[in-house]
Amino acid sequence: MENGKPVRIGALRRDYSVEPFKDSTCDIILKNKGMVLGIGKIEDIFVGSGISHAIHTGGNTQGLDITLKAIKNELNLNESKKYDINQYDKAFIFTNLVDTDMLYGHRNDYKGYAKAIEEIDSCLPEIINSMSEEDLLIITADHGCDPTVPGTDHTREQVPLIIYNKNIKPGALPEINSFDYISDRIKDWLNI
User: Fold this and answer.
1) Among 18, 57, 136, 178, which residue's beta carbon has the most beta carbons within 10 A?
2) Are the CB atoms for 15 and 42 separated by under 8 Å?
3) How far is residue 38's CA from residue 50's CA, in Å, rounded to a whole number?
4) 3-state secondary structure string, 17-66?
5) The pTM is what?
6) pLDDT tens-digit readout, 5-43
């Protein structure tokens, strides 16, 4: 709270959603002896449904750091329980880098937005180098939010989509009309 008004920033931020009406890809992963690690506000977005482990973050830097530790299998969830990605048949690390959207995109802060994109980009080499040949990286967004146009709502319909694996031949993806494309890629990758 600042001056008696709620402030939606930091690790204590909570988003309140509606529980999914049917099983999400996350639920399907859990039902197939997998784990889903939600980093950032993922647990809030899905109302905990389909999430086996959750870590709320205070910003992009923390989210990127936790994601990298999870990929490297160096993440401690708490003092008594070490996270071990290898104990699961299937693992899905689902990260939301909230600053890009909440602090910069919706607040029309194009300079902050550019710095956030640069921070994410600077972490990609270490993330990629830490991935095994069995890992798949998908980078996307849930909506567009151009920080250079008037208003603070979702201002672009198209979102970026980058899919990477050490064995995927580089090339352009066609324009895709639905998020189910991403869900289908995840299920295909995990053989579920």
Assistant:
1) 57
2) no
3) 9
4) CCCCCCCCHHHHHHHCCEEEEEECCHHHHCCCCCCCEEECCCCHHHHHHH
5) 0.84
6) 545 555 555 565 678 889 999 999 999 999 999 999 899
